[in-house]
Write a structure and sequence with these properties.
Strand order of the largest sheet: 2-1-3-4-5-9
Helix content: 10-25%
Shape: globular
Structural class: alpha/beta
Number of helices: 4
Number of strands: 9
Radius of gyration: 17 Å
Distance between the termini: 25 Å
Number of domains: 1
């Protein structure tokens, strides 16, 4: 399941969401405000539970090293718990917002949003088995315009995770998958 937060440019948001659907092999997409208290509960069929297939929860929005769409890690975690988040249904959470997993120049992980959110998951009995991932730097979406049948449209050319020096210059650039960090205690 992919959960997205608002973005000023709805056309670009949908281009990003479509890219995420392909990348994470997820088809269900919902805005956070439309989730009910049952939305994240385990509603899989008996057979699916028997097979043991779990889902990924992908949450996309804006952020920094201490907030995600203006929420603290504890507030976002409590919101998701209130919507039924549990480790019976989800094996992993991928938090996609810039700098929430910010790493220092020596690649050490500082006390950031990703670490705080991951800690909340690990100490809660209903979510302790969920793996939590987030970008180690800024997510950079590169768009390109393509032409087909006389019409032009935008697509994603590449998605990178960029780490910056203190002066703002780019220190390292990773492909999307290799720029994601797994939270660990």
């Amino acid at each position: 399941m992919i959960i997205w937060f608002g973005e000023e440019d709805s056309r670009r948001r949908m281009i990003k969401v479509n890219w995420l659907k392909v990348h994470f092999s997820e088809s269900e997409v919902k805005p956070l405000h439309s989730l009910t208290t049952e939305s994240l509960k385990d509603n899989r069929s008996y057979l699916t539970k028997l097979i043991g297939t779990q889902e990924k929860l992908v949450i996309s929005g804006h952020g920094n090293d201490h907030s995600f769409m203006g929420m603290t890690a504890e507030t976002l975690f409590d919101t998701l718990i209130g919507k039924g988040l549990n480790d019976d249904r989800f094996s992993s959470i991928h938090l996609l917002a810039c700098n929430i997993g910010h790493a220092e120049q020596d690649n050490s992980v500082t006390d950031n949003f990703l670490r705080q959110f991951g800690r909340s998951c690990k100490v809660n009995d209903s979510t302790s088995n969920i793996k939590v991932y987030g970008p180690r730097g800024r997510i950079s979406w590169k768009f390109k315009t393509e032409q087909k049948l006389g019409m032009s449209y935008e697509t994603i050319e590449s998605v990178k995770i960029k780490l910056r020096n203190h002066d703002g210059s780019v220190r390292e650039s990773y492909e999307f998958s290799s720029g994601m960090l797994l939270y660990s205690l």
